[in-house]
Amino acid sequence: MFLERGYDAVSVDDIAAAAGMSQRTFFRYFPTKDEVLRRYRRSLREALLSALQGRPAQEGAVAALRAAYGQTSEVDASSRPRVHALARLLIEASDVWAKDMGETILDDSVPAELSRRAGADTDGLRVTVLAAAISSAALIGWNNWVTSDGTDNPADYVVAAIDMLGLDISD
């Protein structure tokens, strides 16, 4: 419904009716309408962390995070139109997007995994800044794909943006 009518044009009543539940039941699962989209965004962050943790142990921290972003932003050609439309929807729901970015910035799971890989303290400034820089570059790459026609693979945009940082991927 969000894709068909736009985020703002869909009410909680609309969502509940489409799901065959009452508004009250909807609120048992989601405290707000925003949470429907934010749950999706959280699943993407969880997929990134899982991909990062699944990278080969001998791979450097920066190379592993770069590869995890590339892996999780890979979209096969047949799925691109739907993913592109959903990504546009997420960006256009600016209040939801802003809340999600705040949550992402405060999430320490990626810096913690980078620290584990690098053998550094989880609260190390270097690791936190690296994670933030790579995540920001990945986001910018993704957003550039979202504002494109969506026919190319978004992973190409994401990895190219990360590479613009000029980091040593053996790190």
What does it look like?
By secondary structure, the chain is mainly alpha-helical. Helices cover 70% and strands 0% of the residues. The protein has helices spanning 2-5, 12-19, 23-29, 34-53, 61-72, 80-92, 94-106, 109-118, 125-146, 154-163. It is globular. The N and C termini lie far apart (44 Å).
Report the helical percentage: 55-70%
> Structural class per helix/strand content?
mainly alpha
Question: Can you write the helix and strand succession as a string?
Answer: HHHHHHHHHH
Strand content: under 5%
Mean of all residue-level pLDDT scores? 88
DSSP summary: helix tally: 10
Low-confidence runs: none
- Give the CA-CA distance, first to last residue: 44 Å
Q: How many strands, what sense, and barrel or not for the largest sheet? A: none
Q: What form results from the Cα inertia axes?
A: globular
The total strand number stands at 0
Cα-atom radius of gyration? 18 Å
Fill in the keyword field for this structure.
70% helix, 0% strand, single chain
